[in-house]
Amino acid sequence: MSSERECQSEARRIVIKVGSSTLTRDGKLRPRKFSELARSVSHLMDQGREVVLVSSGAIAAGSHRLGWTNPGRSIPEKQAAAAVGQIRLIDIYQRRFARHGKQIGQVLLTRDGLHDRERFLNARHTLLELLRLGTVPIVNENDTVSTEEIRFGDNDSLSATIVNLIGADLLIIVTDVDGLYTEPPTPGRRRPQMYEVVDQITPEIEAAAAGPGSSYGRGGMVTKLEAARMAARSGAATVLCNGRQAGTIEEVAEGANVGTLFLPGERMASRKHWLAFTTHTKGNLILDAGAARALTRQGGSLLPAGIVRVEGEFGVGDPVLCTGPNGKSLARGLSAYSSGDIDRIRGIAAKEIGEVLGYSNGSEVIHRDDLVILDE
To answer: Which domains does the chain carry?
Structure first.
């Protein structure tokens, strides 16, 4: 085992994401894969590790049960398929884990639910309590109520959000490919070289991730790369591996040279990670060059004098995007004022806020403590 792979063997809290391509074939559930997964997770738990399982497959299973040859062409069809398939999915998990004496708990989440800070923390408390009780939380997106605007879009992103929620050390993404190749594999051609360890996600790495996902899955390699980036900002490593062979998860957890390892980065505070990756911004503040420089280079708060334009409608405490004069997204933060009031005080000195509005929530439109720079 290389020193770089020690982060795998030393991980005590693990998130495992399993995609539809592993759990289903042409929409039909593969019972043997569920048996292998339950055995692997139970083995890790018997070693004293804590595991959260993020599982796709509800829409695929529901579509098959309904006799469809596709996962649904509209949001209502996908929601209906998820409602039918989630029952089947959780039933097979319950029966497979019971063979190993393990209890499971079902947790269905939406981006909209985690967008609210209080509900985000409630989800954290629930997951941590399930882990304390020795159960296996089975997490999936609540596709029965999600819409295009509020959905995670793929369970890769959801799994990285769970990493931040519970403070996990390792994210294992189980899929139908061996890892990240230097270029997308082409049928009929020699398989390209695979990255074994990725220290930093560069433009070259991003280019290598280009390519479609499966017909039943919503993610592709690009979403897995973004999940690895998000996990790294939580201080967690990510391993992308193939679930075709039994025992792969155990090998990864033992530190074996399996799949592609994305090394952990510097841990971002959980609240700032939530701001950067989980919240859905409700508006946009266009800044002048001086304010952009103060935020990104000088570590300052956002003052009204540096705001050029306000876009969207939002209230006090809502997350907003901060954009530089060149159109580049610079930061996200929680606004201390509503959009209407910011439009009235933009461009003025902070000491004039009370005179213009008749009240003041402070001199900062966004305080530094409520702000995260996107390219930190």
So the answer is: 3-268 (3.40.1160.10), 281-373 (2.30.130.10)
